[in-house]
Write a structure and sequence with these properties.
The structure is a homodimer.
Chain A: E1 8-13, H1 17-28, H2 30-37, E2 41-47, E3 63-65, H3 69-73, E4 79-82, H4 89-100, E5 104-107, H5 110-126, E6 131-132, H6 143-150, E7 155-162, H7 165-177, H8 181-191, H9 199-202, H10 205-219, E8 229-230, H11 238-246, E9 249-257, E10 264-271, E11 283-291, E12 294-301, H12 305-320, E13 351-358, H13 363-373, E14 378-383, E15 391-398, H14 403-414, E16 424-427
Parallel strand pairs in A: 1-2, 1-4, 2-3, 4-5, 5-6, 8-10
Antiparallel strand pairs in A: 7-9, 7-11, 9-10, 11-12, 13-15, 13-16, 14-15
Helix pairs in contact in A: 1-12, 2-12, 4-5, 5-10, 7-8, 13-14
Chain lengths: ~425, ~425
């Protein structure tokens, strides 16, 4: 059944960390990759900013273009690997041109897929080409393949993931060192774990791009970045880690997608013995809950040249082996539009609440009266240290509570003279399987 | 590009827990699975022992056969799902007949693939059929797909797995309760986590079948069960868990495969903060180390109708979608024979050693002199409690040590009058990534 195949010609747009590593692997491990792919994978053209930059591989025999758009114009190219980035502009133009001309398109560009995935998947189908983006989600973890193929026989009930290594590193470090966000972020920037402009990471946008893609595949709807609720980690205070810990929880930025609900990127508390809570540092992790499988967890490096190029190479091999498949697991015509995703608060959930209150008699009675008024019941309470007249933390966990009720109660509390700062509240994610 | 497809006809051999669950899913979720597969998946025939047994699905419209062999004789069947078990006999006959007649063959039968994988993959290739066994390894974790496709662009450096949920449950429970093996095994049997005849599980055979398959795919050689070193968990004593813990380790049955080395199923110590050490209870886990990806961990349910049927369904969908592929990731003609696997002790490794010695002056000097003689250096030492004249445990961890040296030293120690039981030694697996 092994057909003689003639080899695939590849053009790479963008030779940054990931693009260079993809090129280096394709050149240095040419024979191994040909065996894995069933045919040879040959770089014939590249495009990047600086032709004279030092590189870990030779450009000999490879055509150079200053303009990425020219790659799509070459008739002999079978696959375009886009490593430029950005949801619009050059990358998007290249995607459109490549797919329109029937070239397979492999990308790590999560922003572009989250914003334009439907359009590009439609173009891919119409032109009998593959649109592949394993590298766009959770780096070296084959998360897209696991969901789209490995668990294809399941009805997915939930996807929950730690999707940004920078945030996970910052939160882990804040927890272990007790230091504040700004300080840890500065360290992360020095170590190269965070960008000089960190907003994409710490405000949850990068992770939300990935969540958008996972939700679309999991629940069979068009990817729609605008239908994702996004919260980052800037508001977490170092004191919350210790309180959470005493109550049996760890603070993580987790993306959660459930059928029919708006996917949400949220800073939340996980039980210490849950699988996701054990994933620390720069790692990514995705937990898939499905019927009949139960729960499957994947953990791995979420960024970097090595991890990302692994995902790109697996996409190239899939295309070569004829198993590229449909971008979102089914034809675009069968994907629900994103109005299938309800903009709602979702089911009631337990919450962690921290109030900074004046330590004086009657505080607890006042606070609990407000909670009672809104039908919110307390599950756990921490009131540590005594400093009469000073401001102390009053920490509570609640039983399942409607988000709207909690919000009303917090607003009332904030107005109390004894409450000295905006109340902090984070949802507690309990349904995560324990292991 | 979506071609109209006519549907695939499926015959299921064996309606035990897994076979029944596969049938139930195929019937009850027929529409969803047809969408995922791109064509309908229809059961047309089944074979099992007892036609009149109560089942969670209706056999209406499905042909019944008492003899599984007859399924392969039906011209209209596209795929045979084999859920009978056993490496030889009916299952093997059915596999041969199915593949010879060009029918795709899907199985959870790890023993058969570990023993006869090469023959069956050869038959599959020769007859243009798919041989699929995702369900044979680590249950609901798509471990075969992750290795064969998701990480296909990597040079695999190591695969390490917790591949038997029964053993992991027993070890986890021994650790948390301090109870002995026999007692915990009896409990596991009552709870349905262990078979009445537990040997396949607790002696490491079931896990070694899975390791055989993973090693073959990871390193591109023919699967060969006889080229796997196997050790079970019967010799672990409850006292070792506490000692290991004090030294910063946890005891696990781990299968390890590395390039060119005999895959080994071994009871070993893992650092408490390693990813595999955190996988407790009946779960399975597989950790893949590769270049360029680094380390990817997968965790999930390793057994049971739900988990296993998820894997079977994903194989069926892959076949329907035309991405069945080659059983071991490359043509059989390109697989090395198992002589590629050296029967050696592998690289030097650190060890945990426990001696039961008479508590008297000079014991430590005697023991350390033997270690020094064999060039073995001590990394950690525990000598707890004082009971002059009585037998106490002397626990050590060593630096990297050749297995042969350790064995000689242990033999000498065993002969000492002050050593009152056979020394216990377990390797320490350090290279596991931490997270």
């Amino acid at each position: 059944m092994t057909k003689a195949k003639s080899g695939l010609k590849i053009a790479i747009a963008g030779l940054g960390v990931v693009g260079s590593e993809v090129a280096r692997q394709l050149i240095n491990r040419h024979g191994d990759l040909a065996t894995a792919a069933g045919q040879s994978l040959d770089i014939v053209a590249v495009s990047a900013r600086d032709r004279s930059a030092d590189r870990a591989f030779s450009l000999d025999g490879i055509d150079w273009y200053d303009d990425a758009a020219q790659l799509a114009a070459r008739d002999d190219v079978d696959i375009i690997v886009e490593m430029i980035g950005g949801s619009e502009g050059v990358a998007l133009d290249l995607a459109r041109a490549s797919l329109s001309s029937g070239k397979h398109f492999v990308t790590a560009n999560k922003a572009m897929i989250a914003h334009h995935g439907t359009e590009l998947a439609t173009l891919a189908e119409a032109n009998n080409a593959n649109l592949m983006f394993e590298a766009a989600v959770a780096g070296g973890i084959p998360a897209v393949k696991t969901l789209r193929e490995g668990l294809a026989g399941n009805q997915i009930n939930r996807v929950a993931g730690i999707l940004n290594g920078t945030c996970n590193y910052i939160l882990s470090t804040m927890e272990t060192t007790g230091r504040d966000f700004d300080e840890v972020l500065a360290d992360a920037q020095r170590l190269g774990y965070a960008e000089a402009e960190p907003s994409f990471d710490v405000d949850g946008i990068d992770a939300a791009h990935k969540l958008t893609i996972l939700a679309a595949i999991a629940f069979g709807h068009q990817p729609d970045f605008n239908a994702v609720s996004i919260q980052g980690i800037r508001d977490v205070s170092s004191v919350d880690f210790a309180y959470a810990n005493q109550l049996g929880f760890r603070i993580k930025l987790v993306g959660v997608a459930e059928p029919g609900l708006m996917p949400r990127m949220q800073t939340c508390l996980l039980p210490l013995n849950s699988q996701l809570a054990k994933v620390n540092g720069v790692l990514n992790a995705v937990e898939f809950h499905g019927t009949p499988v139960g729960s499957v967890l994947t953990v791995g490096p979420g960024a970097g040249g090595g991890a990302t190029s692994s995902a790109v190479l697996s996409d190239l091999i899939d295309i070569a082996a004829g198993r590229g498949g449909l971008a979102f697991g089914k034809p675009v015509s069968q994907l629900a539009d994103s109005s299938a995703v309800k903009n709602g608060a979702g089911p009631d959930k337990p919450f962690y609440v921290r109030l900074m209150v004046v330590d004086q008699p009657g505080v607890l009675a006042t606070v609990t009266a407000i909670l009672q008024k809104h039908d919110i019941s307390i599950e756990g309470l921490l009131q540590q240290g005594r400093a009469p007249g000073d401001v102390v933390a009053l920490v509570m966990t609640t039983h399942e509570t409607p988000v709207a009720s909690l919000k009303k109660a917090l607003d009332e509390m904030e107005d109390l003279p004894i409450v000295k700062a905006k109340p902090v509240a984070m949802p507690i994610l309990l349904a995560d399987s324990e292991g």
